Every structure is written in structure tokens, then in C-alpha cells.
Fold each of these.
Amino acid sequence: MLDSKYLRQDIEQAAARLATRGFELDIAAVTALEEKRKTLQVQTQELQSERNASSKAIGQAKAKGEHEKAQQLLDSVSNLGDQLDSVKAEQDAVLEELKQIALAIPNLPDESVPVGEDEDQNVEISTWGTPKSYDFEVKDHVDVGQDVNGLDFEMGVKISGARFTVMRGQVARMHRALTQFMLDTHTEQNGYTEMYVPYLVNSASLYGTSQLPKFAGDLFHTLGLVDDDGQQQPGFSLIPTAEVPLTNSARDEIYDESDLPIRLTAHTPCFRSEAGSYGRDTRGLIRQHQFDKVELVQLVKPEDSMQALEELTGHAEQILQALELPYRKVILCTGDMGFGAAKTYDLEVWLPAQNTYREISSCSNMVDFQARRMQARFRRQGEKKPELLHTLNGSGLAVGRTLVAILENYQQADGSIVVPEVLRPYMGGLEVIK
RNA sequence: GGAGAGAUGGCAGAGUGGUCGAAUGCACCGGUCUUGAAAACCGGCAGGGGUUUGUAGCCCCUCUAGGGUUCAAAUCCCUAUCUCUCCA
């Protein structure tokens, strides 16, 4: 959510900045509603003030035993209630309308973000590593995985359906080893605290990190219980990323300045409906309804958040480097960024079979956008007023896609897969999957 | 599954219709005293919003959440959520 004061004061500028990411702000509508809000709010408060004063006077009169005076006052405020109710109802309707608009406005892009319409205008920042050359025909991860009997797509379809996969044996073990390696790296070297969090969350959390109200269709939702009156109660939703539970740990909190920065990491499965992505990446592990991810979240002071984004992205890069997987770092243009992001770097890993780079991590600075929705704040030493903190999140990394990258980059002519050195301690010293 | 109790400021805890946004204690912050600290004493100490040039003043809202009764609700009623106790 954007700062409503900023929106009021400089709606033209806000609209211009939002336009760079393809969002059209209806200035006339917002301004008109805002005018209405102002009038109604002042009216409501004046009536409330009047009522409060009278009530107080009635109480005092009764306490002194002045019953006649009390009765007079009572008569004079008799119709105040109805007036107040109608004005208040009008005000509530306007406030609700403004709130719905506010919840649907995306974040302002940071000044440093290149302006562009879609992913074609994203800008490569750097590359790391050199794609290997192979003296044999490279297979994609589907064939590599199936040939060692480690990936079973048919079984996933049987058990659940499309976009579900079963892993088996040493491949499943490597998948587990990857999460262990990632978590250990982030907790032991990068100062993150490991968290175990719920995978089912309430709607308040989803509003907090801004999956709701706009992106309900991207999520899986459970049905709530049916109560005694036969009413369907609201259910939980499956997390699309650990960003939701991790970031919402700060919801309605006021931290001491000395608590910050807070760095959290968690390994969770992620669940996405992938509605609207029919036909895309239907082969293989790239786009699944369920996949594992190690997530990095930081809660920081506003002045530290841009530096924190660089560091957080570096933490994700560290995993790719340790696994010796070639990748590139891209800054997303205004048109390709997620709803709540002010600035985003994507890390894309080299996939030899596709002869291209594919996203494996997305690291974003949300600045105060989520914090405002969540009322996640901190108090500076010696200051009275709490301030909104800044939130960041990034994948460190998507585990399934990392496995894909290893299967493809570490394949050998005989169909076996070399285990990256850093993973061997996690796999009982295993060097090759045959 | 059955019965009951509860949810108040950072924490503990009073308040059961009328100057209560809320006693008191602890914690915290500032000051006096002290070489320094402790103790003692003095003072401060919830959040959100509106109006406004204003971090001034004034006003509104918030005692788990939502609804209701009333001129007036932390206090009465209903619902939800959570916590605890006892029984099976």
C-alpha cells in the first residue's frame, strides 16, 4: 500500500510513476472520493464531539442530582444518534471504496529501476561462470532424471495430476541435500535465523504481503469447516512462498531499533495454482504446483534497505557459486516487477539443454509497501513515533530448479550425474549418481 | 465429547454503565543527588486518524475482533477467535 498522505499531496506524480509499470491510476475518481471523505469525516467527528460533550454533561448533572437539567440535555441529543448513524454510514462506504482502491495500487518503482514494458526490457547486470561445452548431445533434466530412475512424472500425474512430480532415490536425496546446504550456508555464514513456519496461512497474512486481494487466483485455498448453521467458514490458504509467513512475523509488531536488521530463512514447500500459465513449461520440473524453496527475508531500517537488497542478492548468488552453476544477474524493468516490489534482481541459471538462462531466484526490496499493510514498525532510540520498517525477500534458492540446473550442468556422457562437491558431505560422500 | 473461567498499555494487574484512554507496581527514558554506580526523590512514558503551513492547538477512534443495547460501554447482550482449568 502506498502512503495515503503522499497520494493526496502529489497524486499527479504518483500516477506518473505508476504509469511506468503499466498501472493507470484514476486520478479524477480518487480525488473526488478524497473530497467526499474529507467532508464526511469532519462532519462525523463534529457530531461525535457534540454527543460526547452532551453525554458528559448528562453524567455530571445526574451525579449532582440535577435531574431536570439532565432530562433537558437528554431531550436535546435525542435525534443526534440518527444523524450520526447516517453520516457515519456514508463515511464508511467512502472509506471502504478508497481502501479497495489503495489495496489494488502496486508499489512505486525505485528511481534506479529501468523503465520498460516487459521482460524483454530487463537489463543484464553481470554474469558469473562460463557454460561448459559438452562433447556429447546434452539431455534436458527430464531425460537425465528419468535415465537414473530419479524423476517420475507419470507417478506424479497418477497421484495428483499435471504439474506434480515424484523424485526417487539419490535424486530425492540430492533435493534434500540442497535444502540442507542452503539453510546451513545462510544460517552459518550470512547471519539468518532458521525458522519453521506454517504452510497454511490466514487471509490477514496474505493481505499483509499483498497476495490479496488481487492475486487470490494464484493460490490454493482450503475450505473451512462448516459450522452448526451449515455456514461455510473461511479456510486457510497454502503459501505460494515462505515470504508470506516469514514477513508476516513482523505484522503488528514494533521492534526496537537495536533489533534490526532481522534476517530470517526458512525451507518450505510452495504451492501455486499456475492459473494462466497453461502450456508454459509443461515439460519437467520448472513449473510445478508444489515446489520447495529456501527463502530469505530481511526486516531493516529504511535507510539500509537498498544496501540490504545487494547483500541479500549476494547471499543467493553465493549458493550458485558454491554449486559452480553459471548464472546471470538481471534487474527487472518497471513493467516486469511484482506488485509489491520497488526494485527486483532476478538470478538466472544456465540450462545447457535449453541453451539459455532461467530464473532461479528473485530478490526484491519492497520498501515500506508491505510494512504499511502489516503495520510492521520499529522505534528509533530516543524517538517516540514508531516508523515503518522496510521488508525484503528473495529465493536462496528455488530448490527444484536448482536440482534441474545440476542435472543438466553436471550430466556426463554415460548418463550419470556428478554430485557437486559441496553437496557430497550431505549425501554420505556420494560422488556420482548412476 | 462435556462443564466452566478468562482475554485491559512493554509486562504484571485494578477497574462491572457516567469527566476512564484507563489506578497501581515493574520495566523503560530524562532529571536531582553521587567521583561513578546503586538506592532515594522528581518528571515523562500506548497506538492510529482528521483538521492545519505546523513535530503547536483542537477533535475523533481504539481496553482480542465483529455486531447490538444506551444520551453515554473496558463495564450490559450476541457472535467469532484465542488461552486456561476441570471432567470423560
Note: Chain A has a mean pLDDT of 91.
Amino acid sequence: MEIKTTPRKKEILSKAAKLFKKRGYSAVTMRDIADTLDMKAASLYNHINSKQEILSTIVIDIADKFTNEMEKIKKQPLRTHEKLKKIIEFHIELTVKNPDAMACLNNDWMHLEEKLPYFVQMREDYEENFRSILKEGIAQGEIANRDPEIMLFSLLSTLRTLYIWYTKKDGVDAKTLKDQMPDTLLNGIIKK
Amino acid sequence: MEIKTTPRKKEILSKAAKLFKKRGYSAVTMRDIADTLDMKAASLYNHINSKQEILSTIVIDIADKFTNEMEKIKKQPLRTHEKLKKIIEFHIELTVKNPDAMACLNNDWMHLEEKLPYFVQMREDYEENFRSILKEGIAQGEIANRDPEIMLFSLLSTLRTLYIWYTKKDGVDAKTLKDQMPDTLLNGIIKK
DNA sequence: ATAAACAACTAACAATCGTTAGTTTTGTAA
DNA sequence: TTACAAAACTAACGATTGTTAGTTGTTTAT
């Protein structure tokens, strides 16, 4: 799509994402966003076209990254548990880098308007690719023979809401996450 | 607290929860809620005192249920994995019975005003009890010796967002959940 | 030094928000 | 049938919403 993103626009997107994370898209006003940047709401429109565009940019931008990475992993000749580990690591990476955008992606996607169909399709494709990896693992005896839908949503639920725990005070740090998330998610809780 | 809840008020709470789930508290107007009940917004005020009260009632009501059940399970003389299984089953039960309220609990709690401190305290207590159960399991060698914080949020993330997957078309049914959730969460994904 | 582009401002708009006041309709008990 | 209470209505309020128009100040390139 477009390439041009001025530094000021980036600031706006960043501050907006932070506010959206805390209170949700609908509860944040243009005046709220402007306040955090020490400017007036009307001045925002020198940089962006609408509140809606702010949300779309934030959400679609990070959703694209997930789609691209999934396509890359899908093509690699790896065993299932290696693919799963790569997916988990990528979720951690993006969450650590941009927890605010992750929150928007998870909580505010339904307020997309023009780009909603595009987003929903991307999300469905991502889940379908994830599901395929699990099913292939089951077929090859590498993954436990349980309902893949439940595995899928267990993994995705945890990965998608990671931003909550990562940004908590006394939350977990990035190193611990990368060290222990794959084992916890893939090998379970109970000692064998 | 209060005991009286007229049938009409229950209808209002139920319809409101459904709307809140779909679009979030802030994006839903009193006129939206009234429309789904074939009435005018002003008429709602014969039954409830404010929009805020609607949210508080929905959220606090279900949060109380979690607190009560946790207190019950905590006291029982069970092994760790049995306690965890009971917690998982209770989450499934409440989600299946009331996915709309579960969505409000997860997404709209930050819009509580008067009852926000009460809610936050309850939530912290719940997590602390959950954490204690895991730590005790580790001490007794029943639970894998990994970071309990990561186990905690893996379990809670999945349980808390279960309503998303349960209410999806082509989502999982209640029976499959009860059959397979505990194993998937506690024993992991990868075949041993 | 000047012009042009950029980015801030003030002021205001139409629409919509939650809520209130006052009135009418509906249902129930005597 | 009448009286009363419950629950709907109409109309409107003040506040706030996203956004626009027009203006002023500030950088930047020539």
C-alpha cells in the first residue's frame, strides 16, 4: 500500500495504540489522543484522515506481519513441533516489540469498517494455516491425537493475549517467555 | 447485595450483554439496547438506573461466581491436578451457560467505575489462589518445574477467552470441551 | 529574502450521547 | 368500575463526539 509515514504520524499511531489498549477504540476520543501529544484534536487532521484510519493502520499493519510470517513458516521443510515453536516465538517477538498494537488487533478489530472484510479473511486464513500444521502433525503421529480445534484455540488464546501479561507490572520478561513458553504450551503443565 | 431482579430487568441485562460482547460497552448506546427490546431508550430507566449499572451488574455478578467457586475448590483436600481439572470444568460450565457475560467480564471490566476497585481486587485474589495451587503442585512434584507465572497465564488466557471459540459458528461444543480441554491444557500438545 | 509547504491553532458544525421530566397507556386488585 | 402502580411513551436537555473551515505561525528550499 502506501509507503509514506512521517515521524509525526508514527507518534500519533503509537500514542493512539497505547490509549486504545487501555480503554478500547470507542472510548478514546480524538481529543484524548491529541492531549497526549500536547496538541489540539483538529491538528491531528494535518497528519491523518480520520479516527478510523488510525485504527486501520495500526491493526492492518500488524496483521500483515502475522500473515507474512505464517506464509514463510508454512513453506519451510520443518517438523511440526519446529513449526509450532517458530510460530510461538514470532508471537512473542511481535508482542514484546509492540504490545499496544497487539491489544488493538485483539480487541478493536471489530471497529474496522472499510477494511473489516479484508481483516476477517486474513484472520481466517491464519487460523486455517495453523490448523493445517496441527492436523499434519497428528497424521504423522507427532501431535497428540486430540481435537485439533481445541489445541488450536488453546495455543492461539494464549499467544494472542500475551500482551496483557507482558505489560503487567511484575509480569514476565522476554527472556523467560522465549525460554519457557514453547515447553509450557506444547508439553503441558503436569509432570510426566 | 440486592435480591430483587424483575424479569424485564433480566431481559435488559441479557440483551445488553449480547450487544456488549459484539461491539464493546463504549460502542453500545442506550438506544441500541432499547431497540433490541422494541422500546425507547428512556423507558429503560423504569428498570435500571444507568448504563453503568447495567455493566456493573453483569460483570460483578459473574465475577462473584468465580470467586465463590475458587474458595470452595481451595478448601477441598484434592491433589493439584484434580483441583486444576475442577477449575477448568467450572470455566467451561460458566462459559457455556453465559458466553455474553464472560465477554463483558473480559473486555469491559475497565469501564466499571464505582465497582472497579472491588473488581480488580477480586481478580487479583483469583489469580493469586490459582498461582498458589500451581506452586503447591510444583513443590509436591506433581507439576512441571517451570515458571508458574507462564503456566498461570497460559491456562487463564485460554479459559478466559473460551467464549470466543464456543460461540463461533463451527465452534466446539460443550461435550468436546469437557472431554478434551483438561488433557490439552494440562498434558500438552506434543505426543510423548 | 521570499515563497511555498507544513503543521499548529481557533471556532464552530451537525450528530449523537446518557439522562430527565412529564405524560399516557397498560395491567392488576378491590 | 375504579384506583393505583408499573411500564411504556414524547420531547427535550446539556455535554460530548468526529470533523471541517479558515487562519496563523514555523520550516525549508531557492
Note: Residues 51-187 of chain A form a domain with the Tetracycline Repressor; domain 2 fold (CATH 1.10.357.10).
